[in-house]
Amino acid sequence: MTTTALPSLFVSHGAPLFAIDPGTSGPALTRWGGALLADSPVRGVVVMSPHWMAATPTVMTHPQPATWHDFGGFPPALYQLQYPAPGNPALAAEVLQAFEAAGIATDTDSERPFDHGAWVPLMHLFPQATVPVVQVALPHGAGPAEVLALGQALLPLRSQGVLVMGTGSMTHNLSEFFRGIPPLDSPPAPYVGEFSRWVEAAISRHDVAALLDYRRQAPHALRAHPTDDHFLPLFFALGAGGWGGVASPQASYLSREVMYGLLAMDSFALN
Fold this sequence. Notes:
Elements: E1 8-12, H1 25-39, E2 44-54, E3 58-60, H2 76-79, H3 89-101, E4 107-109, H4 116-125, E5 133-139, H5 144-153, E6 162-168, H6 174-178, H7 190-204, H8 208-212, H9 214-217, H10 221-224, H11 233-240, E7 251-255, E8 258-259, E9 263-264, E10 267-270
Parallel strand pairs: 1-6, 2-5, 2-6, 3-4
Antiparallel strand pairs: 1-10, 7-10, 8-9
Helix pairs in contact: 1-4, 5-11
């Protein structure tokens, strides 16, 4: 057992091309992950991705999940990538116990592979693929408060060598993105920065009520997230980090990059 709790982490995984076009965000994740492994024993990662949704918070129990290329129409090189990190059925059992202790109904999936919302950021974070990974499904119909509670249930695992991580995207308007994919280094659309910095400010001042009500209060929220699936894992990371509690931590940003002018790649850790 570690004497100091590991951080929780939110990572924007952007488009699948992030795997081969890392920008500045990929190297930032690699530096952060390398420093974490050098400083702390990491027993495993528990990650929530918006690309796995289920009726309940289902937990992956496969001992060696496959790498799933769950996208189409991208360069062939992307489909050759593999992320052979092991699963960890014992850690999965601990996750299930933590949810049960919090009164949260769960399920298990012994066949689930890693979707790109998990393996793409993880290949930057831990490129050697030696740290075991367990995925948790985002429940259909869950709102910010429910996802925050899921993260809060797993907070004790952080003091037991477990990195709890949510991946999504700080902005995620795919209809604009596919209307004509802009160059990677396009200037950010103004709404992207306005929304992202509102979120950062709400996190910084520990404004739980405002962030839970972000779809009404944040500027351009419905444009930044026509659906909220890619934003909800942020609350998983916040809950696991103890944000909004008595000793609420500050967010330490790893990246504020914007790719293609539309995809805010904000990533931050809560210590």
